[in-house]
Specification:
- By secondary structure, the protein is of the alpha/beta class.
- The protein has three domains: 93 residues, Phosphohistidine domain (Glucose Oxidase, domain 1, 3-Layer(bba) Sandwich), CATH 3.50.30; 101 residues, Enzyme I, Chain A, domain 2, CATH 1.10.274.10; 294 residues, Phosphoenolpyruvate-binding domains (TIM Barrel), CATH 3.20.20.
- The chain has 23 helices and 16 strands.
- An eight-stranded mixed β-sheet has the order 1-8-7-3-4-5-6-2. It has an eight-stranded parallel β-barrel with strand order 9-10-11-12-13-14-15-16, surrounded by five helices.
- Helix 4 packs antiparallel against helix 6 and helix 19 crosses helix 20.
- It is globular, with a radius of gyration of 25 Å.
- The two termini are 24 Å apart.
- Bound molecules: phosphoenolpyruvate (PEP) and magnesium ion.
- The site of magnesium ion has 5 residues, from helix 17.
Length: 556
Amino acid sequence: MTVSGVGVSPGIGHGPVYVLTVSVPEPPEGATYQGEADQEKAKARAALERVAGELEARGVKAGGEAKDVLGAQALMARDPGLAIGVDALIERGTAAARAVYESFATYRELLVAAGGYLGQRVADLDDVRDRTIAVLTGQPLPGVPTVAAEPYVLVARDLAPADTVLLRKDVVAAFVTEEGGPTSHTAILARAMGVPAVVAARGATRLRPGVRVLVDGGAGTVTVEPSEQQVAEALRVSRIRERALDAAAGPGRTADGHPVPLLANIGGPGDVKAALDSGAEGVGLYRTEFLFLDRTGAPTREEQRDAYRAVLEAFPHGKVVVRTLDAGADKPLAFLPPPSQEPNPALGERGLRMFRAFPDVMAAQLQALSDAAEGISGRLQVMAPMVSTVEEAAWFAHECATMGIESSGVMIEVPAAALRSKDLAAVVDFFSIGTNDLAQYTFAADRQVGGLSALQDPWQPALLDLIAAAVGEHGVPCGVCGEAAADPALACVLVGMGVATLSMAAPALPAVRAGLAGHSLAQCRTAAAAARGQVTAVEARNAARAHLPGLAELGL
Ligand code: PEP
Ligand code: MG
């Protein structure tokens, strides 16, 4: 039997299943307390503070990325708005534990409604809530074993950072969760630890504790009771793959030396280390809205300048492509609310449209970018998200030039922009194709709806046609910074179609580098032509791979 999910941290892990069942029951509705309101409020505050302190201490002990993640959770526990909500409920007679439960519920709803990156913070919030209720009601919080005779596969509905940060590779062979997505903390921390992980694996928590499983964190599969042969074969392929990835160092290029700079997608200076460790030659997409997702006020020009400068300095020889705020739809920013109620936020005020609606915010960001590049020539490139027409592109280029920004470009993520790339090329310096949104708008399929994933498959021939239109013959360099660039086979196809640079999440870089190094430019071109000649996504992928024999040999 096999349970399938989404592979978010590559590698093979096998061992007995350990199912984590954290269940702190909901305090009964209408629960009241005996005694004074002030005492009850003090109890609630003390519990929240104890939880915040414990999370912080664990973070300090674990260090690295875990410290930031647990620090953010501690901030949730110390949120002044939350404390006010708890106090108000206690004032009305509600017991502290129930008051905590209800106050967290308000925040929870907001995160769920926001979806995307914020939606995936729900597990972190629930964890803080459950810990606080456990303290208030004197219940123990079930933990995860930190020592084991044999590494186990940790299975849970979702994992909170506090459960995982003190775990080490020699104790956990793999993570499998029912919930979560590629940007959930399970995924982020698993990648940082180098432990294979599969998320969104429906039915995983029904696995019998102790049953042996084989987890493929690349393919996203969990094989139950695999044969010895299956395990040996999976490990053999994985070793070949690891050796291939280690061997492919240096700048991105095809087997015959055609250079393809391999760049990283980042959300802030905190992602720079992982990018450098994976050999990124620069940054192809700096998602600046990620810097400000949890902010209620607009960031200052100085604050922004420092965040941009830090990244420019970290890549002294590579280019850094910064995207101006892509607020709205799946990335709502509290300080940039859409001007009107929108029934379809993805089709409403977002990206460049939102930026135009808030000229002060735009001026501050462009000025901060210009300040950050002072004394550094030729490395900063600034691009706008969600550009649809040549007027928008020309307007953005003009605004950048006014601020002294040397190189301005646009993302191609709306079909209209891809179809008229020639017109846009006349007014900007470069393009970067955002295949995530381009797929969403091409197939009218919301990227946040998991059930529509077949329509967001970047191998869809219609999407390949639009990419070809965007690359065009207009002489403006065109990169790809959507998820498509992270698939080693599709990366070769994109290069075969004339894409100049590829940008992706840091963990994907080694496999793409190895895939490119294993094929000539001519092979990439043949693979691209073969893919575009098909009528379905599956056929396009199979046809391309048939012309890229090196991928299977490398275990990719
Ligand atoms: C894209 O749409 O492909 C892209 C890279 O931008 P984002 O995922 O941030 O919308
Ligand atoms: Mg996009």
